Amino acid sequence: MVKKLAKSVREYKFLSILTLIFIIGEVIIEVFIPFITAYMVERVKDGADINEIIKIGSFLAVMACVSLACGGIAGFTCAKASAGFAKNLRKDVFHKIQTYTFENIDKFSSASLVTRMTTDVANVQMSYMMLIRTAIRCPLMLVFAIVMAYVMGGFLATAFVVVVPFLGFGLYLIGRKAMPAFRGVFKKYDKLNESIEENVRGIRVVKGFSREEYEKQKFEVAADDIRKDFTKAERIVALNSPLMQICMYFNMVFIMFVGSKMTVLGQHGVDIGQMSAMLTYGMQILISLMMLSMIYVILTMSTESAKRICEVLNEEPAICNPENPVTDVSDGSIKFENVSFKYSASAKRFALSNINLEIPSGSTVGIIGGTGVSKTSLVQLIPRLYDVTEGSVKVAGKDVREYDIESLRSAVAMVLQKNLLFSGTIKENLRWGNAGATDEEIIQACKLAQADEFIQSFPDKYDTKIEQGGTNVSGGQKQRLCIARALLKKPRILILDDSTSAVDTKTDALIRAGFKEYIPETTKIIIAQRIASVEDADIIIVMDNGGITAIGKHDELLKTSHIYREVYEQQVQGGAEDEE
Fold first, then answer.
1. Cα gap 182→301, rounded to integer Å
2. Residue 574: predicted pLDDT
3. Three-state DSSP class for residue 34
4. Using CA atoms, how far apart are residues 478 and 449, in angstroms rounded to an integer?
């Protein structure tokens, strides 16, 4: 896990090492300052002149300034290194997610992935900052201060023999008790983010059903669960302070009482300077121990975060390129040979069973069937968004598993059920289909998709800003923009997954007519609920219960397929009633 995360340090390795060097310098100077201070006190006691005192004082001031400079530079380099590490880590996680297939995405919820890239990375960043600065500083300070305490105090340093083990054991128990509470928080963060994401995405539905109060309560429950875990953990961690105070005051009383008594009795030659240094070293030792306990707690939290991040980084894409992949998709012919498919190995039933189908290049194919009969599952196998469980899918005579994934998907354009537009202008959204498309090509594609008319009605026309998710355009407008985006790709295969459901039948017919004119050689697959959207197709496929029940043209299916005929009669009858 550490090696995996360490790869994200990269160009910030030098700054991290520089931080360690300056931290070591700061600690060495800090532990010598009490020693010099004790020496100055003794010289004052022995009647040293003002010039000598000024020299020693000036030397102390220089040491303090150097220590301050080392600490300041270490703080700067540490902040830059940890922020850079977090940037690289987010980048690595994001890039890894881009390689995921739908199967990998299904394994992690989107809310969980967001939590891992934000909260978890922030925790690991904090941990890294602590590791290269505080986690180095505290042990060094602890060791050096104990050594100097024995050098300066002799017998007085025995106070630490009692205090250090007592404080160390107490801090260990506190950290151990706090760990389970911190571990449980992150899964609850996933639930909280999921609640937020669902609410924001579905805010129109929430308001449409007046479910604001229900959503508030659901959010409050998730937030309160996190509060309880954090409160429990913080209540335990709060014991650090009183434990620290007990040890600190014990140390002070012991040193002052025993040291004063030894001074009065003239034993071991303990003087005021030594006592002053011992008190300072005592504070350094105790503060170092307390900081180590805080590091322990923070590392415990970040370890859980690091595990969650590594789960994403270690996840291998379910679909990969073969050796020596084919990069050229020569035509749009498609063949399904004995295809069966289920979404996971643990799934009890197949989504598709024994599919055999051949589609000539350039033909128009319609797919009809009820909700949940796996129409979308069928077409998702063509660009290899999922791999078949059994059998094979061939494009241009070659198994899709032989192709370079990017080349295959570049040759297939899909307009999905859930049409998605990104933040930016209409023109920027359309160029997702073809980054190098000219303005003329964009306008032509929009005219064919029947989108140009409403775009021209906007004040900024093609430079109109699309809000996140396309919330400032209607469902029908969004569908037409997505179709235009797909047309700009000029693909070998175009798949429309119920993507004209929000437009009227006249506009639907005009769009299909545009396909014949603009992309006659492209294989067009149209999934639809309306018979009118597919009745002029070269091939119509009727699906039911994960299989193909009939294939033919409109007139043939009216005679041979009771499912097709039933849907047709219902729609014709419904259309007649609407006209009345």
1. 6
2. 55
3. helix
4. 11
CA distance 440 to 456: 14
pLDDT of residue 576: 46
Q: Let me know: does 258 contact 267? Beta carbons within 8 Å.
A: no
Global confidence as pTM: 0.68
pLDDT, tens digit, 9 for 90 and up, residues 540-579? 999 888 888 889 888 888 888 888 888 888 877 655 444 4
d(CA 133, CA 291): 11
pLDDT score of 261 more than 90: no
For residues 576 and 338, what is the distance between their CA atoms, to the nearest angstrom?
41
Coil, helix or strand at residue 313: helix
Separation CA 166–CA 248 (nearest Å): 12
Distance CA 415, CA 312 (A): 28
pLDDT at residue 578, rounded to an integer: 47
> Does the pLDDT value for residue 444 go beyond 60?
yes
Give pLDDT, residue 80: 92
Residue 156 Cα to chain centre, angstroms: 53
Task: Please tell me the distance from the alpha carbon of residue 284 to that of residue 167, in angstroms, as a whole number.
Answer: 13
Q: Return the amino acid letter for 44.
A: V
In sign, the C-alpha dihedral spanning 503, 508, 512, 514 is negative
How many angstroms separate the CA atoms of 307 and 548, rounded?
44
The pLDDT of residue 580 is above 50: no
DSSP 120: I
Q: State which of 134-138, 208-212, 348-352 shows the largest mean pLDDT.
A: 348-352
Nearest to 277 by CA among 370, 382, 150: 150
The set of long-range contacts for 290-295, using a CB threshold of 8 Å and a minimum separation of 24, is 290/167, 290/171, 290/240, 290/244, 291/134, 291/137, 291/138, 292/135, 292/138, 292/139, 292/142, 292/171, 293/171, 293/172, 293/174, 293/175, 293/240, 294/237, 294/240, 295/130, 295/134, 295/135, 295/138
For helices 505-518 and 439-448, give the axis angle rounded to 10 degrees.
130
**Cα angle for residues 62, 66, 69 (degrees, 5° grid):** 140
Q: What is the largest CA-CA distance in the chain?
A: 120
